[in-house]
Every structure is written in C-alpha cells, then in structure tokens.
C-alpha cells in the first residue's frame, strides 16, 4: 500500500510503515514540507497514495469530492512519537483493511 505522511506527523511514522511492509514516504522525503494542501493532494493522487494526516482540511476535501486519494485522518491530540507509534500499531490492521475495501476517509481517534 502506498502512503504519504503529512507534515504534522513525524517522519518516524513513515519509517514505521515502511518497516511493516508498506510503501510510505513523509512529505519531507519528497521535498514537500512547505507544500500546499492542493499540491499534496495532487501528488498523492498521481502516486496512487493515501494521505496520512492530522489536517481536517483533507478529511473535508475527501467528503466533498468523488475522486482523489484516500485519507487517513488521525484525530488524536499531540503525543510523543513513542505513544503515536504504539497506538498506530494497534489500529493499523483495521485502517489498512478499510483502505483496501475502498474507503476514502478513515478516521483514527
């Protein structure tokens, strides 16, 4: 599964996904750290990647448009990387399954 991790999330999340067999990049890996939402949306679409983000704007965009990348919207507050990765390990199988079923917006609390 191809994933693009947005700027509000740590590169460690992209590395975790890669270590667990996914094709994941952080926006900084592509030189997109300061890119607009429009540019990230476009590039994710070109790559066939879902966007992993904390940005509600992407969730709204996914609900308003019939096409575009899948969105994994992480709704938790700020936590240390170790806590984020621990929680991610718990939810990733169900998130992955939802994306594979074609869900365009997957919320993670």
Give a short summary of the structure.
The protein has helices spanning about 10-20, 35-45, 55-65, 80-100; strands at about 1-5, 25, 50-55, 70-75, 105-109.
Give a quick set of tags describing it.
alpha/beta, Rossmann fold, 18% strand, 109 residues
- Tell me the strand percentage band: 15-25%
Oligomeric assembly: single chain
Helix content: 40-55%
Second rung of CATH, namely the architecture? 3-Layer(aba) Sandwich
Which structural class fits the helix and strand makeup? alpha/beta
Number of E strands: 5
What low-confidence regions span 5 or more consecutive residues with pLDDT below 50? none
* Tally of separate helices: 4
Give an overview in words:
- The chain has 109 residues and is an alpha/beta fold.
- It has a single domain (2-108), classed as Rossmann fold, CATH 3.40.50.
- It has helices at 11-19, 37-47, 56-64, 81-100; strands at residues 2-5, 23-26, 50-53, 71-74, 105-108.
- It has a five-stranded parallel sheet with strand order 2-1-3-4-5, with helices on both faces.
- Helix 4 links the parallel strand 4 and strand 5 (105-108).
- The chain is globular and about 35 Å long.
């Amino acid at each position: 599964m191809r994933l693009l991790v947005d700027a509000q999330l740590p590169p460690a999340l992209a590395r975790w996904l890669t270590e667990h067999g996914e094709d994941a990049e952080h926006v900084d890996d592509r030189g997109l750290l300061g890119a607009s939402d429009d540019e990230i949306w476009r590039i994710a679409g070109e790559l066939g990647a879902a966007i992993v983000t904390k940005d509600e704007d992407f969730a709204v965009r996914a609900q308003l448009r019939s096409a575009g990348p899948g969105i994994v919207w992480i709704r938790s507050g700020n936590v240390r990387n170790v806590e984020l990765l621990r929680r991610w390990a718990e939810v990733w199988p169900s998130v992955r399954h939802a994306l594979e079923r074609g869900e365009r917006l997957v919320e993670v609390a």
